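Re: your question from the hallway

Yes, I did run it. Sequences:
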Amino acid sequence: MQEIVLHPLEKYLRSDRLPHTWCPGCGIGTVAQAFIRAVDELKLDPSQIAIVSGIGCTGRIPLYLKFDGAHVLHGRAIPVALGVKLAKPNLKVVVFGGDGDILSIGGNHLIHAARRNADLVVIMVNNFIYGLTGGQVAPTTPKEAYTYTSPYNPDSKPFNAVQLVAASGATYVARWSTAYPVLLKESIKKALTRRGFSFIEVISQCPEIFGRLNGFKTPYDLLKKIKDVGIIRKNISPFDTKYDWNNEITLGEFVNKDEPTYLDYLNQIIEKARGQGDKK
Amino acid sequence: MALQQGALQAGKRVFDVIVIRDRCKECGLCIEMCPTKVLDRENTYNVYGYRPTFLKNRDRCIGCKICENICPEFAIFVKEVLK
Amino acid sequence: MTENILFTHGNQAVVEGALVAGCRFYAGYPITPSSEIAEEMSKRLPKLGGIYVQGEDELASINMIIGASMAGMKAMTATSGPGYSLMQEGIGLAVATETPIVIVNVMRVGPSTGIASKPWQGDIMQARFGSHSDYEIISLYPWSVQEAFDLTIEAFNLAEKYMTPIILLSDGILARMREKLYIRSPNEVEIIERRKPNVAPEVYKPYARDENLVPTIASFGDGYAIIRDSLTHDERGYYLEKPETQAHYVWVLNEKIKRNAEKIQKWDEKFTDDAEVVFIAAGPMARIVLAMVKEARSEGLKWGFFRPITIWPFPEKQLNNAVRNANNVIVVEMSYGKLIYPVRWTLRNNIRIGHIPWLSYVAPSPDEIRKLAEKEVMD
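Structure:
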């Protein structure tokens, strides 16, 4: 059968770039698909969406999706995205980054964007490791896990990103996993249609590196573990969520509130400044 | 096929699973996650040297689309077979 | 029109120039002696419907202005040494993605924290080589409040014209000194805007170039689904791991500036026709040196003066021409030695290169330079 078969979401892909370079079984492709599906189901105008990413495997997402995109510096996707959004407020601006990119080198930008209630959607794909560089320890790595820079595990305990971002003032905080792509898609839809700062952490499988280094022989073995440890809870405070590889990683939506956003403040500032008359 | 025709006539929904063979990287997630176990791995290789998934048991596919949603490669999708 | 004339300082002049040039986005972090630029921008931009963001650090600031520029706005930040060092990776990103932005570095004493409020000229090489790997960059250094205004407009024009970041140098003297400033109105000056693509998205290539090697890059939201990548990329903006792609890419980023250098370069020279000794200085220090040269001339000494206004690309041809009858040049700078390097690279034949590194952050008087100059000329 030599006819060209197109995936239903093909129009959102840079098909000339496929197959992508993510490993077989990597959850990032699943996240990318959930995002595109969310855009498709919402019938958003793709030309009014901009995606910004940092460095890492997750950072490669804009290379394969047909949106305005920027693949910028490690940890700096959030300020670039904020600049884009403020310059063109009508665009929906989405940040993709891995756990190292967003939470380690980009940590300062993350908490400040949350504090400002900046009008961005940040999707952090957490695969517990620095994948693209070959498998070093990350601030989300379970302390018993073996990585190439934590060979004498246990190391320090990891961040529970949900707590960190909620404490910084984010108005939408959720955590899902690639084991439930439909729930992830629904959450992305919510984030895309609301104002203010939305943070979605996605627990994802890195079978080639994290999986292999920690005894998971196939992508499914690792995904099954992620599915088993991810417990969906409702009506729970972000500060009661668990992030424990041996016990429970709480999934769900933990914060969803309406507060003035950064764009609201900037508009108020402009009104106030103009109202004060023009004195040099 | 006869079983499927019969199912269509009986008002049951029938699905086809399409695999874009050269995109599949043999990760096995679709095969393992399928609740009715209708997918399996081919014995022949695609152009990159992977053995792609194929639909081995069309009659038992319930169209849940778990395979489509979980696939990281945009290599598999479900199409409803209509009269 | 007296409301267009101010008696003000260099930092203010930079703001006035930026606003006339059409800058409507500023993200910055406070750092002496540049903070007045941020403060004034935070007051003026909202009145014009523009946006001021106080970044959480310099890294946020440089990256925010890059994002704003990718979405089509003229954007600027200002900082000083320690912050400028933090911004180097961002400058590299702007070079690689060919994003027009203006970065003001108000130079101060270093290294490291140094003395915050005191001027220095020690970042001249960093303006050229601060970020890693190979690139060319444009850097301007005004010497007066009026020139600070005019060169800020020029900086934005060059950024838009060549799709590149511009380093506008200043220092603690220029930032603080007050002079008369005539604020030209927008219709009195040339204001350049970046080109917009006029082909269909299907055939559009973001990094296809004209004969000056300058690309026409769409902004986000214009419907071109363009990818701006910090990885080595080809005409489509696609990352390619191929030796030919890298070779062409690094060649074009450098050649874009080199090829257009003579259109970009600005310099100033006085009394060079018959000068035997030419003094070279930049920024406010150059005013002191010029005063000294003028006085020496009036006494009959055949001294000349050369001032690079674009420090980078350094006006090499122009300097070689200015010293054609000289047997001696003397570089005068308020640092241990930075401007001396491009001068040494430029002048190779039979000309003695002297150096007066002024290591005090208290600006010298023309007499003090004169004493040192006489010694330097005699040795």
